[in-house]
Amino acid sequence: MSEYLICNAVPAYKEAPVSIDILKDSTSQVLEAIYSKKAEKNYIILDVEEKDIKSKIETKAKNYPDMDLNIILVDGSFGFVYRNASAILKVIEGEKPIPSSVKENDAVCTVEMLLDSEYKNVYVDGSTKNKGKFSLSKNITPRELLETCGVNGIFKGMYLGYPMGVIIGEGDLENKLELSTDYICIFDETDCILDQLKNISKVYTRETCGRCVFGHEGVTQINMLLSDISQKKGKSSDVALLLGLCGEMKNQVLCGIDATLATTVISAISNFREEIEEHITKKVCKASVCSKFFTYHILVDKCIGCTECQDVCEEDAILGKKKFIHVIDQGECTQCGACLVACDEEAIVKAGPIKPRCPQKPIPCKR
C-alpha cells in the first residue's frame, strides 16, 4: 500500500477543462479508481471555482467510508503549476505550489491518467473547421488530427500546448505524436507565427514562480524580445539571442514549466525561422496580423465621402469632408481598425508590403 495518491483536477488551460469534464461525467469511476489504488491518504486537487463538483464528489465518496479522501481547493488561474509533482506535494503540506524539481512522481496523476483511458481528450482551437473537444488516439499523427478537425484555409502550423509545448509545421504532419496536452491550436495562412508565439509566451508570465533566475528572467526576456520584433524594433541578432537563451533555460531551470516555453520557442524558430526573421529584415508581416507592419488605406473607386470613418476615428487620422474621398494620415493612424468596421462601402482596406495607390490629400468623389 502506498502512502498517498494525489489526483490533480486543475485544468492546465481554462479553455480546455478536460479534468472537469471527466469529474462531472464520471465521478463514480474516478472514486472507484482512487479506491482501487489502496493508498493510505488520497487527495483531489480542485479549482476553488468548482465547488459544485466538490459537493458531488463528497456525496459520492460516502460509498467508500474506509477511504481517506481530502479535497483541496486551490487557485486554478495558473494551471501549469499543478502539473508539477513537487508543486503538488507542497499543496498537500499546506504551502504554496512552488515547483522545485522536474522529477516525476508515480503517486501524482491527472484525472485522465488515473482512469488510464486508451484515448486522449483534447480541445482543439484556432483556424479549424471544427472547434471543441475530441477524443483521439494517444498516438496520432498531426495529419490524422487535421483529418478529424479540419483547417479553415491552408494549413500552416499547429501548437501542441503544455506540457508538450511545440509548434510544428507542414514537414511534421506524418510524425507520430504521443498526446499529453489538453489543448491544441491550428494555424492557417491568416495566422502569424510570431504573433501566436508572443501570445503563448505571455501565458507563461503568470505561471513562472520567480524562484530561479533562468526561469523567471528567461520568460521575461523572451517576452521582451518577441514584443520588440512584433513592434518593428527587432534586431538582426534577436533570433540567435532567443535560441541561445532558450537553450540555456532548458538546462538550467528548476522545473519543467519554463523549460517548456523554451522548447516552444525553439520549435517555432526551427519551423518558421524565415517568417519570424522577415519581421526584422524586411519589416514585413505577410499575414498582416502584427499591427505595426500593416496600414489602412481608402480606395478611390469605392469611397463616397460619407464621413462615417471619420466619426469613429479617435485619433483624427482621417482627412476629408462630405463628398470628398477621404485620406488616412499614416503618421497619426494607430491601426485600431475602427474605420474598417464602420465603412459599409468596403472602401477601406488593410495592406501589407504592397500598398494601393491613394491621393495625398482629399479630392472630390467620382461617385
Kindly describe this structure.
With 367 residues, this protein is α/β, with parallel strands linked by helices. The protein has 3 domains: 112 residues, NADH-ubiquinone oxidoreductase 51kDa subunit (Rossmann fold); 163 residues, Ubiquitin-like (UB roll) (Roll); 71 residues, Alpha-Beta Plaits (2-Layer Sandwich). The protein is built from 12 helices and 17 strands. Helix 7 packs antiparallel against helix 8, helix 8 runs parallel beside helix 10 and helix 9 runs antiparallel to helix 10.
Query: How many domain modules?
Result: 3
* Gap from first CA to last CA: 84 Å
Strand content is 15-25%
| Spatial sequence of strands, sheet with the most strands | 6-5-11-8-9
Which regions contain 5 or more consecutive residues with pLDDT less than 50?
A: none
How would you sum up the major sheet? Answer: 5 strands, mixed
Tell me the number of helical segments per DSSP (H or I, 4 or more residues long). 12
CATH class of the largest domain: Alpha Beta
Structural classification = alpha/beta
Task: Jot down its keywords.
single chain; about 375 residues; alpha/beta; Rossmann fold; Ubiquitin-like (UB roll); Alpha-Beta Plaits; about 35% helix
Question: Could you give a short description of this structure?
Answer:
The chain is built from twelve helices and 17 strands. The protein has 367 residues and is α/β, with parallel strands linked by helices.
